[in-house]
């Protein structure tokens, strides 16, 4: 068994969110095999792996999209079992999904406050009237604090480019996350300037002490922002790399299994 | 390919232009029709009394359209509204007849207990609509069935039940008070009650759609149901409410119809579902979901009504109205599709 204590590796600080021995099968396919993982406050952990390595499955398993078949998930020192992504969200874990999950016919404010609408005070609020000016103002304040520029807050996202939509999805996650931000391929569809914005946003979130789990294929982006790099291959957590000591070649080798990994060698 | 300098602001122009076009277009078409019929017919068309007639004719369809607007914005459809209208009218009418007096009294148009019978009938009619709407919603959300198929099924069930209840004939001896007090009554001598009821419902529903959380969730679900689900919106529960609302308003429409004619009209509503869907779509609501306004639905309801009225005054066969509405409908859907594909290209 390659059980590895999550406390042993990585940076200082206690684990905010950790997984131990997580497994998940879909029929005969073992998508995740006994995966250990931990993220501590103030760090950016990159999760990398080839297509089908189980990156998104792992994120789904720890954020409540589906329950793992085996294993334990610990959040802020307590074992948890999120029944839905909404449960995870309520505890302060925000996820940016690969498919964005925005409503294109709503504007940026509508999307950012979706499911968290602010209502007018008093009787009108009791009747269900939305407080649109307040939501817009809060959005503007938060976005300028995060240094995010969104083209036009009042236009439906369907008039935005893919990158601009992604900007809204990322801004929404960062704005609401109080404990952990998880980003599944947040830079995949972006232009150069927007990638810079997202990477900058990730660093900014780290400064506030909120850890970021960052899934990506893009090695330059990973080595640019990550403090640690966890490598998944065929459903197994095969190794952990240090971006200061390891190179992109090491990462690619670990992802593809071209060479024996350090951990494989240590056993 | 003109060059690399096309900035993002330009690529989205076609989408936005068409989106703007559709709302301007429908108001423009309605204004154009009014002008044309005024030129052709003068004050025979352009007078307050005639406009009130048009509004009365449109009032029942407008109620169906209000519910249908919510349903279509969620990217659903409700084909059962005409049947629910008929069934609610039948149930309401039969309850009124049964409770307003003995069968002998009623057949002599005496309704000693109508103070109980009429409110009970109204409640029974509304309840029938609500229950049918909930039934639609439960089948769609619990059994994960297509709204088109579910409501096609309940269309048959509703109309069949109405005919079973009545033996296929219309309900007779309905208390005449509902006609004199509701159906043909005019507030201040010029505002017909059916028009007031349907416009008040449309205004309230329009405010809810544009300004309230209920409307916001309706748009969000039609725009991306999965995104709504992930942020914790109970999508099934909301859809249930939307179909229940559509059923309830169809029930109200059935009672309004009953009060206007003092009897049911079982055979007269088989095309109401398509007429209300046309009105909603002409009004700029997208069959793909996520887009639509209540004011659009009001205008979209009045275009066929104005056409019918104008053609009758002009002496043109009223059947031309159906042809004209068909053309406008196709145009509206075409514009909607162009708008969508323009968006997807970005």
Automatic annotation (TrEMBL), chain B:
<dbReference type="InterPro" id="IPR001851">
    <property type="entry name" value="ABC_transp_permease"/>
</dbReference>
<dbReference type="GO" id="GO:0005886">
    <property type="term" value="C:plasma membrane"/>
</dbReference>
<feature type="transmembrane region" description="Helical">
    <location>
        <begin position="52"/>
        <end position="73"/>
    </location>
</feature>
<protein>
    <submittedName>
        <fullName>Ribose ABC transport system, permease protein RbsC</fullName>
    </submittedName>
</protein>
<feature type="transmembrane region" description="Helical">
    <location>
        <begin position="147"/>
        <end position="166"/>
    </location>
</feature>
<feature type="transmembrane region" description="Helical">
    <location>
        <begin position="187"/>
        <end position="210"/>
    </location>
</feature>
<feature type="transmembrane region" description="Helical">
    <location>
        <begin position="279"/>
        <end position="306"/>
    </location>
</feature>
<feature type="transmembrane region" description="Helical">
    <location>
        <begin position="20"/>
        <end position="40"/>
    </location>
</feature>
<feature type="transmembrane region" description="Helical">
    <location>
        <begin position="79"/>
        <end position="99"/>
    </location>
</feature>
<feature type="transmembrane region" description="Helical">
    <location>
        <begin position="120"/>
        <end position="141"/>
    </location>
</feature>
<keyword id="KW-0812">Transmembrane</keyword>
<keyword id="KW-1133">Transmembrane helix</keyword>
<dbReference type="GO" id="GO:0022857">
    <property type="term" value="F:transmembrane transporter activity"/>
</dbReference>
<feature type="transmembrane region" description="Helical">
    <location>
        <begin position="318"/>
        <end position="336"/>
    </location>
</feature>
<keyword id="KW-1003">Cell membrane</keyword>
<dbReference type="Pfam" id="PF02653">
    <property type="entry name" value="BPD_transp_2"/>
</dbReference>
<keyword id="KW-0472">Membrane</keyword>
């Amino acid at each position: 068994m390659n059980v590895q204590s999550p406390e042993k590796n990585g940076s200082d600080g206690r684990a905010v969110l950790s997984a131990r021995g997580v497994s998940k099968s879909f029929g005969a396919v073992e998508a995740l095999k006994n995966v250990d993982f931990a993220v501590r406050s103030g760090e950016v952990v990159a999760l990398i792996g080839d297509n089908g390595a189980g990156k998104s499955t792992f994120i789904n398993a720890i954020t409540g999209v589906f329950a793992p078949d085996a294993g334990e998930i610990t959040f802020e020192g307590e074992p948890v079992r999120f029944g839905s992504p909404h449960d995870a969200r309520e505890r302060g874990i925000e996820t940016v999904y690969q498919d964005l999950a925005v409503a294109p016919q709503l504007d940026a404010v509508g999307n950012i406050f979706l499911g968290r609408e602010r209502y007018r005070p008093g009787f009108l609020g009791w009747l269900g009237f939305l407080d649109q000016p307040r939501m817009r103002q809060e959005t503007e304040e938060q976005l300028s604090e995060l240094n995010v520029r969104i083209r036009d807050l009042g236009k439906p996202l369907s008039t935005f480019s893919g990158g601009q939509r992604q900007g809204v999805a990322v801004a929404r996650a960062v704005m609401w996350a109080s404990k952990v931000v998880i980003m599944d391929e947040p830079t995949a569809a972006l232009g150069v300037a927007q990638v810079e914005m997202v990477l900058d946003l990730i660093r900014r979130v780290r400064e506030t002490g909120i850890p970021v789990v960052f899934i990506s294929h893009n090695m330059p982006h990973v080595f640019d922002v990550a403090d640690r790099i966890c490598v998944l291959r065929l459903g197994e957590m095969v190794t952990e790399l240090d971006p200061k000591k390891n190179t992109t070649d090491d990462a690619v080798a670990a992802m593809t299994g071209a060479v024996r990994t350090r951990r494989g060698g240590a056993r | 390919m003109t060059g690399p300098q096309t900035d993002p602001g330009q690529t989205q122009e076609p989408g936005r232009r068409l989106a703007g076009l559709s709302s301007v277009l429908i108001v423009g078409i309605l204004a154009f029709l009014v002008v044309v019929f005024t030129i052709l017919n003068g004050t025979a068309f352009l007078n307050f009394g005639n406009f009130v007639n048009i509004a009365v004719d449109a009032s029942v369809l407008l109620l169906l359209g209000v519910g249908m607007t919510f349903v279509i914005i969620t990217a659903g459809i409700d084909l059962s509204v005409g049947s629910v209208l008929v069934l609610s009218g039948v149930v309401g009418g039969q309850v009124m007849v049964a409770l307003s007096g003995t069968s002998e009294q009623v057949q002599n148009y005496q309704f000693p207990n109508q103070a109980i019978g009429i409110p009970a009938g109204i409640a029974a009619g509304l309840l029938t609509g609500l229950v049918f709407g909930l039934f639609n919603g439960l089948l769609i959300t619990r059994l994960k069935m297509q709204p088109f198929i579910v409501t096609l099924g309940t269309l048959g069930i509703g109309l069949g039940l109405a005919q079973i209840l009545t033996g296929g004939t219309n309900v007779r001896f309905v208390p005449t008070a509902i006609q004199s007090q509701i159906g043909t009554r005019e507030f201040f001598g010029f505002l017909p009650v059916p028009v007031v009821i349907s416009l008040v419902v449309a205004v309230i529903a329009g405010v809810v759609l544009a300004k309230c959380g209920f409307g916001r969730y309706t748009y969000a679900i039609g725009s991306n149901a999965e995104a709504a689900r992930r942020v914790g919106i109970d999508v099934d529960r909301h859809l249930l409410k939307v179909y229940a609302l559509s059923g309830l308003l169809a029930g109200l429409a059935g009672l309004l119809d009953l009060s206007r004619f003092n009897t049911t009209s079982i055979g007269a509503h088989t095309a109401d579902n398509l007429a209300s869907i046309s009105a909603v779509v002409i009004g700029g609501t997208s069959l793909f979901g996520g887009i639509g306004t209540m004011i659009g639905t009001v205008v979209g309801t009045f275009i066929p009504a104005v056409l019918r009225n104008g053609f009758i005054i002009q002496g043109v066969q009223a059947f031309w109205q159906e042809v004209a509405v068909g053309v406008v409908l196709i145009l509206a859907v075409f514009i909607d599709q162009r708008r969508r594909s323009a968006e997807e290209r970005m």
